[in-house]
Write a structure and sequence with these properties.
Layout lengths: L8 H11 L12 H9 L2 H15 L3 H36 L2 E6 L2 E6 L8 E5 L7 E13 L1 H4 L5 E2 L20 E2 L4 E13 L5 H9 L8 H32 L2 H15 L3 H18 L3 E3 L4 H5 L4 E4 L11 E7 L4 H7 L8 H10 L6 E6 L7 E8 L2 E8 L1 H7 L4 H16 L3 E8 L16 E9 L6 H10 L3 E4 L5 H11 L5 E4 H6 L2 H7 L4 E4 L3 H13 L4 E5 L5 H6 L2 E5 L5 H6 L2 E3 L4 H41 L8 H20 L22 H27 L4 H22 L7 H6 L5 H17 L1 H7 L6 H29 L1
Helix pairs in contact: 2-4, 3-4, 4-9, 4-23, 7-8, 8-22, 8-23, 9-22, 9-23, 11-12, 15-22, 18-19, 22-23, 22-24, 22-25, 23-27, 24-25, 24-29, 25-27, 25-29, 27-28
Length: 816
């Protein structure tokens, strides 16, 4: 027995306590403490904090404070960025959380969507977001947009019934008495009994499925973690061994320990994780200016290696609004007549398409409205204008032909035109008009005589930026695959317009007949998918991953959430997307602009490329530091680079250089090369080789000066000043040389980098103060720096830069 009176407030409260609130659990929601804990638990940060603690125990308070201070700053930047992302998601959740109108204690009451319970009597009207799965018991021309669940762009009709089902069916289909949480009522209104809330709704079932899906771990972060551990182990063993050797050979154990600490500091790889963190945070900030929210900063670099982009159609490639694409007209005013047959204040996309196209300046007085019913699929309005009455009707062509009493060849011609338009992915409606209507008006528009005005083809238009974005992605070696719940003809039409290559159009039914190996084989070619169910999207993503592809998946609907989470990079739409899709994603496009995705791919490639440049620079600059830390030990000479001096070098130069290289613009060919091998290490043989060659050349410059100064028996503090000044110019030369490998130094200078000269100027100012300010001179044990010392240091840096540029030109020729 259906309860048409609603629940009492007491009964509703009891059910709310029993079933829980009508919302999805926020699994994985990151509080500020969780964010902080996840950041500081990373091995890379633990290494840095441990190093700072060791310096503190040894009494090197200055070094400890500098190191710990920089670590704290880096952690703070990361925490703030991720917490801001969570706050934006919270705001989006609040904006999209529906309110509900229910009957409680016999009276209409507006409540929060989370407070809706089973058995509640819902009142839904045009424009309402449905708060829970419900069974329609009464309604007037009720239509719902279920695209977020089914992927179909067209609204479906709802027909009331009086017998509650034992099993609530899946969404989809016309004239059914079911409405679903998260869908939108676009026409009419009605009442419905709530049958499922929270996790038991269709949205909830998909949400539960997400719990069993593991998200991909960022490969670059894992690689960096392994690199850090290997370097740390190597640094510990090498520095300890050399300290022991020094102690046994020379007997001065205190000096040997200090030398070992200095060498260990020169080998510690703290720059790698810090560079990675800075680049990811800065990258997230850069794309946020394009209204792209990065939920997981590491996803940016992964996006730069994507080989396949799986995209939904509705709301992603298309605008998710109907527009008039074609007219087959008998009269010139077919669009105006269609607009007169529409509701003026409407949420229905078909009505909006006619009203937008007609641009009516004024509307005559409406006297009568005949609504759409399951038996009569047309809408009719009667108006009064200049003392005369006329009627306008639009709807299914068969219904309009019935109104116009058409048959024979004329009807056959219209059906042929309908089939031609439908084959090209359009929704086809017919429009008719009746003039000089007498009063009183009949009970049904069938009793009026209509004149056929024409056929109207409606389509969900492609976003204007999509074709160019698809082309750029394809030029970058990224395969674009469309996966939609819409009809194959519509999918094929949109794919053609977008420039997506599709040798085959596979349907969900085709997919069900395939084995896993057959699907993997199909995916190696060019194809698109239509009439696809949510679990099938997940199967496609997993098959692509099994083929070795790096998969990026876009989507906005609940049906996209499992595949968003399973993909290497899940990209949700923030404006129209659901909470479930956003929570499952790594990146959220706040403006729902497909072109923003390609910009993010470009930025991801730029970030990875610049990280390689920064890692190459770090490797290069550590070679002379390691060499200059080792030479005094081998030749039983005083340390040139003391622990505090090495800390000063790394804590000032390396961050400054990281900022400079992070701000480098992308190379000109960044989107014209294939995606990188995702299994390739960022420290490839090429990078290691280049880094060693650059570093050895730098070491030859600085080491040669050390030998020369030592042979001249210069005072220890003066040698330290000369070598340190040389290291500063060498650092600047390495920065300039590593800005670009695809162009010459002159061409690179033409590319603007706002931080280049600021960074270089800042470094020179800081080290000028360190070397000429008496308190700093005493702290770092610097001696006087003479004019000829400055000249020698500058010449060393310039010579290194010229040699590196010559080697780069040879390397570019070898690459070609």
């Amino acid at each position: 027995m259906i309860n048409t009176q609603g629940l009492s407030q007491q009964e509703a409260s009891t059910r709310l306590n029993t079933d829980g609130p009508n919302e999805l659990p926020r699994e994985g929601h990151r509080t500020p403490w969780k964010i902080i804990r996840s950041v500081i638990s990373e091995p890379m940060f633990a290494l840095l904090l441990a190093a700072g603690s060791i310096y503190l125990v040894l009494g090197d308070i200055q070094e400890s404070l500098v190191l710990v201070g920089f670590v704290t700053l880096s952690v703070g930047i990361t925490v703030i960025q991720e917490f801001r992302s969570e706050r934006v998601l919270d705001a989006l959740r609040d904006m999209t959380s529906p309110r509900a109108l229910v009957i409680r204690d016999g009276q209409p009451k507006r409540i929060a969507g989370r407070d809706v319970v089973r058995g509640d009597l819902l009142i839904v009207n045009e424009g309402d977001r449905v708060p829970a799965d419900a069974f329609v018991i009464s309604g007037d021309a009720l239509q719902a947009d279920e695209s977020l669940l089914t992927g179909e762009s067209l609204a479906v009709r709802k027909h009331p019934a009086q017998e509650l089902p034992d099993i609530f069916p899946a969404p989809g289909g016309e004239d059914l008495p079911y409405i679903y949480a998260g869908t939108l009522i676009v026409r009419g209104g009605g009442r419905a009994i709530v049958c499922a809330t929270g996790l038991h709704s269709e949205i909830g079932k998909i949400g539960q499925a997400l719990a069993s899906i593991e998200m991909e771990q960022p490969r670059l972060r894992m690689q960096t973690g392994r690199i850090v551990r290997l370097f740390a182990i190597g640094a510990l063993l090498f520095s300890a061994g050399l300290a022991l050797l020094n102690g046994f050979l020379h007997g001065n154990w205190l000096s040997a320990i200090l030398a070992g600490i200095a060498l260990g500091m020169s080998l510690l790889p703290e720059e790698f994780p810090l560079v990675l963190t800075v680049f990811m945070v800065m990258g997230a900030w850069r794309i946020s200016k394009a209204r792209v929210l990065t939920r997981k900063a590491a996803a940016i670099e992964t996006l730069g290696s994507a080989t396949v982009l799986c995209t939904d159609k509705t709301g992603t490639l298309t605008q998710n609004r109907m527009s008039i694409a074609e007219l087959r007209k008998n009269t010139p005013d077919v669009v105006e007549t269609g607009a007169h047959a529409s509701q003026k204040e409407s949420h229905d996309p078909v009505d909006l398409a006619f009203l937008t196209a007609a641009q009516l300046q004024k509307s005559p007085e409406k006297l009568r409205h005949y609504g759409l019913t399951p038996d009569f699929l047309a809408m009719t309005n009667i108006y009064s204008e200049n003392g005369k009455c006329f009627a306008a009707a639009k709807g299914a062509p068969e219904t309009i032909m019935r109104l116009c009493r058409m048959d024979g060849q004329q009807a056959a011609d219209i059906r042929a035109a309908m089939e031609d338009m439908a084959a090209r992915g359009m929704r086809v409606l017919a429009v008719a008009k009746s003039d000089n209507i007498a009063t009183p008006f009949p009970d049904t528009p069938v009793d009026l005589f209509f004149r056929f005005s024409g056929l109207v083809g409606l389509a969900d238009p492609l976003r204007e930026t999509v074709p160019e974005a698809v082309k750029e992605a394809q030029n970058a070696g990224i395969k674009v695959i469309m996966i939609t719940g819409d009809y194959p003809t519509t999918a094929k039409s949109i794919a053609t317009q977008a420039g997506i290559t599709a040798e085959k159009v596979m349907t969900g039914a085709d997919l069900e007949k395939m084995t896993y190996e057959e699907l993997r084989s199909i995916l190696k070619g060019d194809c698109i998918f239509a009439r696809i169910m949510p679990q099938q999207k997940l199967r496609i993503v997993n098959a692509l991953k099994a083929n070795g592809e790096i998969v990026a998946m876009t989507g906005d609907g609940v049906n996209d959430a499992p595949s968003l989470k399973a993909a290497h990079i899940g990209i949700a739409m923030g404006g129209r997307g659901t909470d479930v899709a956003r929570e499952a994603s790594s990146i959220v496009l706040l403006d729902d602009d497909f072109n923003s995705l390609v910009r993010t791919i470009r930025l991801g490639r730029r970030i990875y490329d610049n990280i390689r440049k920064a890692f190459l620079y770090i490797l290069s600059v550590h070679v002379p530091i390691i060499g200059l830390s080792t030479l005094p030990i081998l030749f039983n000479k005083p340390l040139i680079l003391t622990p505090i001096l090495i800390a000063f070098l790394e804590m000032v130069i390396d961050p400054a250089c990281s900022v400079v290289l992070e701000a480098e613009e992308e190379e000109e060919n960044i989107m014209k090369i294939p995606p990188r091998d995702p299994n390739a290490s960022i420290l490839s043989r090429e990078i290691l080789g280049l880094g060693f060659i650059q570093g050895m050349l730098a070491f030859v410059m600085a080491g040669g000066l050390w030998f020369y100064a030592s042979a001249k028996n210069l005072p220890e503090d003066e040698i330290r000043s000369l070598i340190f000044a040389t290291l500063v110019t060498i650092n600047l030369a390495l920065i300039l040389a590593n800005r670009s490998f695809s162009t010459s130094l002159v061409s690179a200078f033409k590319r603007p980098n706002p931080f280049l000269w600021k960074g270089a100027g800042g470094i020179l100012c800081i080290f000028g103060i360190a070397m000429f300010w008496p308190p700093a001179q005493r702290l770092f044990h610097f001696g006087p720096l003479h004019g000829h010392d400055v000249t020698i240091a500058i010449l060393a840096g310039m010579t290194l830069l010229l040699v590196l540029e010559w080697l780069k030109s040879i390397w570019r020729k070898l690459k070609l």
